C-alpha cells in the first residue's frame, strides 16, 4: 500500500475513534453542544472515506477514456468535503437555535459534565495531532484532498475547544443559554472554512493557472533554453491536483530542419521537467510569419 493511501486509511480509523469519544462525552454529560460536536465528527469519517476513494482513482494512469489521467478526482473530492463542512455548520446552527429556544439544564461539572468535557478534549487532541500529520503529507504530495481533510480537522479542533470553554463558562455562570450562543459563532467560522475549501477546489477544476511567480520562472526557463528559436507565444499552463500541463507555440527560422527544431524542443522540455515534476508538455513549431512579438522573445 502506498504511504498516501495508508494516511487516508488512518484518517478513517482516527475519525471513528474521535467520533466514539465525542459520542461518549455527549452521553455522559447530556449536553446538546457535545452531541452536535459528535455528529460533526461523523462527517469526518465520511469525508476521509471519500478522500481515500479520490486518491485511489486520482493515482490511476491515463487510459483510453481519460487521456489526461484522473488527477481531477482529488479536486472533486475536496469540493465534496467542503460541502460536508458546510453541512456540518448548518447542523450546528440548527442545534444551537433549538438549544437557544429550549435551554436545557446542563449536568453538574462534578458529575457528568466534567467527564464529558475531558473526553471531548482528549478526542480534540487526537484530531489536532492527526490534522498536523495530514497537512504535512498534503503539502508534500500537493494533494488538495488531504489538505482539505486537514483543514476540516483543524476546524473540528476549534469547535471542540469553543464548546468546552462555552460549557465551562455556562456552568460557572449558571447560564445554559451561553452554550448555544458560542456554538453559533463557531458554526459561522466553520461555514467560512467550508466555503473557502469549495471555492479553491472549484478553481482547480476550472484549470487554474499557477501563481505569477511560477509562470515567470517557466518563461525564464524557456527563454534560456530556446536559443536558435525566435519566440515562444500562447503559453498556457493548467494544474489538476498533482498533475500539470504546459503548451506553447515555438517560432523558429523557416529554413530550420525538423531535426534542429526538435532538438530545441527537447532541450526546453528537459529543463521544464527538471523543474516541474511530471509536467506534460506540448510544443507547436511555427515559421517566422506566425511571430506575434509577444510572450517569450528569445535573444
Ligand atoms: Zn502561434
Ligand atoms: Zn519529440
Can you describe this structure?
The protein starts with a helix and ends with a strand. It is about 70% helix and about 10% strand. It has two domains: about 5-205, Alpha-lytic protease prodomain-like (Up-down Bundle); about 210-295, Alpha-Beta Plaits (2-Layer Sandwich), CATH 3.30.70. The chain has about 300 residues and is of the alpha+beta class. The relative contact order is 0.12. Helix 2 (about 30-60) packs antiparallel against helix 3 and helix 5 packs antiparallel against helix 6 (about 180-205). The protein has a four-stranded mixed β-sheet. It binds zinc ion (2 copies). One zinc ion (ZN) binds next to strand 1.
The SS-based structural class is alpha+beta
Radius of gyration: 26 Å
> What's the CATH H-level homologous superfamily of the largest domain?
Cation efflux protein transmembrane domain
Give the CA-CA distance, first to last residue. Answer: 49 Å
Which strand-content bin applies to the residues?
A: 5-15%
Helix content: 55-70%
Number of domains: 2
Count of DSSP-assigned helices:
8
Strand order of the largest sheet: 3-2-1-4
Rounded mean pLDDT score:
86
What's the CATH class of the largest domain, please? Mainly Alpha
User: What fold name stands as the CATH topology of the largest domain?
Assistant: Alpha-lytic protease prodomain-like
**What is the molecular shape?**
elongated
Amino acid at each position: 500500500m502506498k504511504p498516501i493511501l495508508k494516511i487516508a486509511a488512518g484518517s478513517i480509523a482516527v475519525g471513528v475513534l474521535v467520533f466514539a469519544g465525542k459520542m461518549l462525552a455527549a452521553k455522559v454529560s447530556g449536553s446538546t453542544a457535545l452531541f452536535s460536536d459528535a455528529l460533526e465528527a461523523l462527517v469526518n469519517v465520511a469525508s476521509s472515506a471519500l478522500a481515500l476513494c479520490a486518491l485511489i482513482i486520482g493515482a490511476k494512469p491515463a487510459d483510453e477514456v481519460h487521456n489526461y489521467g484522473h488527477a481531477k478526482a482529488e479536486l472533486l473530492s475536496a469540493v465534496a468535503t467542503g460541502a460536508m463542512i458546510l453541512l456540518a455548520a448548518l447542523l450546528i446552527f440548527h442545534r444551537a437555535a433549538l438549544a437557544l429556544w429550549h435551554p436545557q439544564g446542563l449536568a453538574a461539572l462534578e458529575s457528568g459534565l466534567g467527564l464529558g468535557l475531558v473526553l471531548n478534549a482528549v478526542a480534540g487532541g487526537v484530531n489536532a495531532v492527526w490534522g498536523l500529520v495530514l497537512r504535512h503529507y498534503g503539502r508534500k504530495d500537493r494533494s488538495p484532498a488531504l489538505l482539505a481533510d486537514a483543514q476540516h480537522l483543524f476546524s473540528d479542533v476549534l469547535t471542540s475547544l469553543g464548546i468546552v470553554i462555552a460549557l465551562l463558562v455556562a456552568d460557572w455562570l449558571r447560564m445554559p443559554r451561553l452554550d448555544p450562543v458560542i456554538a453559533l459563532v463557531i458554526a459561522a467560522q466553520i461555514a467560512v472554512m467550508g466555503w473557502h475549501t469549495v471555492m479553491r477546489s472549484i478553481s482547480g477544476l476550472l484549470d487554474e493557472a499557477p501563481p505569477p511567480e511560477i509562470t515567470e520562472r517557466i518563461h525564464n526557463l524557456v527563454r534560456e533554453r530556446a536559443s536558435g528559436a525566435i519566440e515562444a507565444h500562447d503559453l498556457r499552463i493548467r494544474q489538476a491536483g498533482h498533475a500539470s500541463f504546459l503548451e506553447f507555440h515555438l517560432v523558429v527560422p523557416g529554413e530550420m530542419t525538423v531535426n534542429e527544431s526538435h532538438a530545441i524542443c527537447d532541450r526546453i522540455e528537459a529543463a521544464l521537467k527538471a523543474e516541474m515534476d511530471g509536467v506534460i508538455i506540448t510544443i507547436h513549431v511555427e515559421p517566422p510569419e506566425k511571430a506575434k512579438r509577444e510572450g517569450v522573445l528569445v535573444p
